[in-house]
Design a protein that fits this description.
It contains 14 helices and six strands. By secondary structure, it is mainly alpha-helical. Strand 1 (about 70) and strand 2 form a beta hairpin.
């Protein structure tokens, strides 16, 4: 009898772990990310948030770049160059560029196009219009401003002019160099879509994902119930086992939804580094990254809460039921 009961429990556990658990995790995942699939408004909201502005305006962004950046025959100090670029290209311009790229990407998805282009027009226009401001910012922030000007840029004899006039000539020369670089930028940058991509009807895709996730959860529920009935032979124990097997995938989904909200950005992103630079070295960027992750995983939080609550209720009801008189007391003692 004990051998048969142990075999049933083992078989029920195997059915759950190899069939029920993957199905439930798949269904919860699909339903959790469904709202992001094919919805440009969800993605646009990420760049409409004030944290996007804070990240784009962060004074620590220069840490992402090498110490010197080329400008024609000259070299710019990255710290001063990033501040100059931030002075010329506002977060609104970057947001406009990002939103345009999102719209074009989704249009390409729906049209089945092989590529789409990112319009750099707003950035080029901002750099051209605010080149004098960018030049002034750079010259004020750089440790060696003269290194930004190629030899022969300033007119002969300018070293004998008063310092204000020298500064004005340097600003004009650097602004002209920045305008030339801005005009040399392409009007757009092509982005290739996956090869052999068929047109995607975004609304149909969202509906299909919802249906797929729902059916996967229905199948998972059937398998989990069957595994619980196979493992146990009393209603009380079956409900307790069923509750724990619903609680496990729900808890995993809940963890995915909760983690980005639990940790401070400097802690959560400290393990992520690029070229030896930890994300925590740029707090505004780390905060924006945490916001993006929390937004994307928000669906896991809601689905995980529902599944976890259902599992807890089932398990609680099972434990609250009194043992049946016919239940094997010897098994309870083991």
């Amino acid at each position: 009898m004990n051998i048969a009961r142990s075999a049933r429990r083992l078989l029920g556990a195997l059915v759950f772990f190899f069939v029920g658990l993957p199905l439930s995790l798949g269904g919860l995942s699909i339903l959790s990310v469904q709202r992001w699939a094919g919805d440009p408004a969800q993605i646009k909201a990420l760049v409409a948030d004030p944290r996007f502005d804070a990240a784009a305006s962060s004074p620590d962004l220069y840490k992402l770049f090498p110490e010197e950046l080329p400008l024609g025959d000259a070299a710019l100090e990255s710290k001063a160059a990033v501040k100059a670029a931030q002075a010329a290209v506002s977060p609104d311009v970057l947001r406009q560029t990002a939103i345009s790229a999102i719209d074009r990407a989704f249009a390409a998805l729906e049209g089945g196009h092989a590529s789409f282009s990112v319009d750099l027009g707003p950035i080029k226009a901002a750099l051209d219009a605010k080149a004098p401001l960018a030049a002034s910012t750079y010259l004020a922030e750089a440790d060696t401003p003269s290194a930004a000007l190629p030899p022969g840029t300033l007119p002969a004899g300018s070293a004998n002019l008063p310092e204000p006039r020298q500064a004005e000539l340097a600003r004009e020369a650097l602004a002209a160099a920045l305008r030339a670089q801005a005009q040399a930028l392409p009007d757009s940058v092509p982005v290739n879509m996956p090869p052999d991509m068929d047109p995607v009807r975004l609304e149909a895709m969202r509906v299909g994902m919802g249906a797929s996730g729902t059916w996967m959860l229905i199948c998972a529920a059937a398998v989990i119930v069957a595994s619980a009935f196979l493992s146990e032979d009393s209603l009380r124990k079956r409900l307790s086992t069923l509750g724990s097997r619903v609680l496990l995938p729900g808890s995993l989904a809940l963890i995915l939804g909760v983690l980005p909200r639990l940790f401070q950005p400097t802690v959560f992103f400290n393990a992520m580094n690029v070229n030896g630079l930890a994300m925590s070295d740029i707090p505004a960027l780390a905060e924006y990254g945490r916001f993006v992750m929390a937004s994307i995983t928000g669906g896991f939080l809601s689905t995980g809460l529902v599944a976890t609550a259902l599992g807890a209720v089932l398990g609680g009801v099972g434990r609250a039921l009194p043992p049946a008189r016919t239940e094997d007391e010897a098994e309870d003692a083991e």
